[in-house]
Structure prediction request, 149 residues.
Amino acid sequence: MAKILQNAWLAACLGAITCNVLAVERSAEKNYLLRCVGCHGQDGAGAPNQGIPAFPGLLDPLYSNDLGRTYLTHVPGVRASSLSANEIAAVLNHVAQRWAKAPHELERFTAEEVQVRQKVEVPDIVALRRHLTGYFRARGIELAPYPWP
Ligand code: HEC
Prediction:
């Protein structure tokens, strides 16, 4: 009897886990539409005059740089999204795929990388972006225009 109950519980539990995963994990495209499009737009143009940087052709340096990749996992819309690490990796890869100049040359994010990078303390995201702007500018590379230098 105990054995039957245990098996029934296991089956129900496994069923629930599968259902949760199916319910929670959405495609990157859908997550972009639900969680990102309000600020960044369908075309990734953002709203530079309101502090939301444009994506097209401007993302490659951030995706190719160690600190840049940490920055990407901490941008406010990503942090506040309540997406899983797996979904964040997928939506960041989706953004690169659509708007980077050379998406095939960029390393793809994995859930593990997102988890590790999100553990890094980033007390001031604007200061980090400002630092990255300066770092790239000194090398003749411009990131998306930003309202504060
Ligand atoms: C409430 C508005 C808002 C939402 C929603 C939002 N973002 Fe952002 N995003 C911003 C702002 C503002 C910045 C600039 C951050 C800063 O201060 O450095 C930014 C920066 C970025 C950048 C870096 C661009 C650069 O040049 O610095 C990426 C990539 C990005 N967001 C992706 C996303 C993704 C993916 C989502 C959805 C999961 C998302 N954002 C949702 C406002 C938003």
Q: What stands out?
A: The two ends are 70 Å apart (CA to CA). Helices lie at 2-24, 28-40, 60-63, 66-74, 76-79, 85-99, 111-118, 125-137.
